[in-house]
Design brief:
alpha+beta, globular, 5-stranded mixed beta sheet, Immunoglobulin-like, single chain, 3 domains
Length: about 475
């Protein structure tokens, strides 16, 4: 059954981290400074950490995904908890509620700041060429900067950062060493054909957990800083973040946003009608992933197909295949076909020197997808009957099995019942499909007077698939058993 799921406090620990950081730095240099290669430096950015801390205190769930057991996370909470009622936290909560300042809007603001302990914008907030995430108005951005400065001063945030400098350096070397293993810069320059002069710096988001953001800064003179924030979701026994080959897709994804999003924006007038027709069919899944508009769905669609092209070129066959399954399961059913279209682009570079020049073909792709979206959705499996039904009350606690009936034969090798262990019905043995492949039986042992909540499939969990390999869209279920 699937379920949802350091720093300066110790002189000895600090010395160990410094030593480890030096070793990692040497390893990273040997990996990243090979002749002819373009390395990507990495840092822990104090402004990103500061903004993450503020929105963590607000209670923003996207800044509560880092594991609470990580020593650095514990030290952050211990240091900043006394300031949870600070006026800046109240203002941040207001901006989140009224303007939707969350997720990438927080990250975008952070990378548009410089300085510390005295903060200032890299580009004036009232500059008409500023490309700060659009949920920020010039007035809101300026007002929040004054409040953020006050919070940093009152909480002695930059003293906290200084005490963790060695830890930050060691953490950055972890990601830098992983990025150096694949030619991200070379591939981006070649694939997009338009990144000359851009600077690239990776940022470790130590409080982000699984949250990653492909943010950038575009200066009024055209200079471009690509600043993807890669969240730290795993930590080793020394308290340092863990990055591995599993992160290749995420790293590529966040690099690609800085190039894909402007391409969508430049063609949005032509693409919007198709996107608005497709989005309602995917709205539930998209919103669960904080993709709240058809335009964002287009950003993510192009980024995910481009990421697949990178993994085909610089990953294993297993990695590329797993990436496709992952994207389809998250609602982007068209990723395989869009990736195939981009393969045509790769093979026709004399005709299409840049991806921008190929975008009319991408526009036509989404027009065709929108035209056939009803038929496409009909191919997906659906739940036609559930025992007990969703919302049922007074269900007998003696019920021995949950039964799920589908409208088409399913792959008998997979299942995903998703929920917190305390909320999901305890199973007495692994579930199984009946012979026709349309009926799934999950033996359970229910308790009287309990409400059970779970999902059949979920974001990241797509065991229920049709015989043809298409995933069931997540189905939320709850029921209550009768008391004895």
């Amino acid at each position: 059954m699937h379920t949802n799921r350091i720093g300066g406090a110790s002189r000895t620990r600090g010395m160990a981290i410094v030593a480890l950081g030096l070793l990692l730095a040497a390893a990273s240099r040997s990996l990243s400074q090979q002749p002819g290669e373009m390395s990507v430096p990495v840092r822990v950015d104090e402004r990103v950490e500061l903004m993450s801390m503020v929105f963590r205190l607000v209670g923003a769930r996207e800044y509560h995904m880092a594991p609470d057991t990580a020593p650095y996370v514990q030290e952050v909470d211990a240091h900043f908890a006394p300031f949870k009622d600070h006026p800046t936290i109240q203002l941040a909560a207001k901006l989140r509620a009224e303007r939707g300042i969350s997720y990438d809007a927080v990250a975008s603001y952070a990378v548009h700041l410089k300085g510390g302990p005295q903060l200032e914008p890299k580009i004036p907030f009232d500059d008409p060429k500023l490309q700060l995430e659009s949920r920020w108005s010039p007035q809101a951005a300026a007002e929040f900067l004054a409040a953020l400065q006050q919070f940093a001063d009152d909480s002695k945030a930059f003293e906290f950062f200084d005490a963790h400098r060695d830890f930050y350096d060691a953490a950055a070397q972890k990601l830098e060493a992983e990025i150096a293993r694949r030619p991200y810069r070379q591939w981006i320059d070649g694939f997009f054909g338009a990144s000359a002069g851009a600077s690239f710096t990776g940022i470790v988001g130590l409080l982000n957990g699984g949250g990653n953001y492909g943010v950038k800064v575009v200066y009024p003179d055209g200079r471009l800083e690509i600043l993807p924030i890669i969240g730290a979701s795993r930590f080793d026994e020394t308290g340092l973040p863990i990055f591995s080959a599993e992160d290749a897709g995420t790293i590529t994804h966040e690099f690609c946003h800085s190039f894909c999003n402007p391409l969508i924006d430049a063609n949005l007038e032509q693409m919007q009608p198709a996107a608005e027709k497709i989005y309602p069919f995917r709205r539930s899944l998209m919103k669960q992933q904080a993709y709240g508009s058809a335009q964002t769905m287009l950003y993510e669609s192009l980024v995910r197909a481009c990421t697949h092209r990178f993994l085909i070129a610089h990953g294993s066959e297993r990695e590329a295949a797993a990436a496709l399954r992952h994207e389809v399961a998250r609602g982007f059913l068209w990723t395989p076909e869009l990736s195939e279209l981009l393969a045509e682009y790769e093979q026709s570079r004399e005709t299409y020197p840049t991806l921008a020049s190929f975008m009319p073909r991408v526009v036509a792709f989404f027009d065709e997808l929108a035209e056939g979206i009803d038929d496409r959705m009909a191919e997906l499996p659906h739940v036609v009957r559930l025992t007990p039904p969703d919302g049922a009350r007074d269900v007998s606690p003696d019920l021995e099995a949950i039964v799920i009936e589908f409208d088409k034969p399913m792959n008998p090798g997979g299942m995903s019942i998703v929920g917190r262990p305390t909320d999901t019905p305890p199973s007495t043995e692994r579930g199984h499909f009946e012979q026709d492949g349309r009926v799934f039986v999950l033996p359970v042992r229910l308790e009287p007077g309990r409400t059970y909540r779970f999902s059949i499939n979920g974001i990241g969990y797509s065991g229920f698939r049709s015989a043809g390999g298409l995933p069931l869209d997540p189905v939320a279920v709850s029921f209550t058993t009768a008391p004895r």
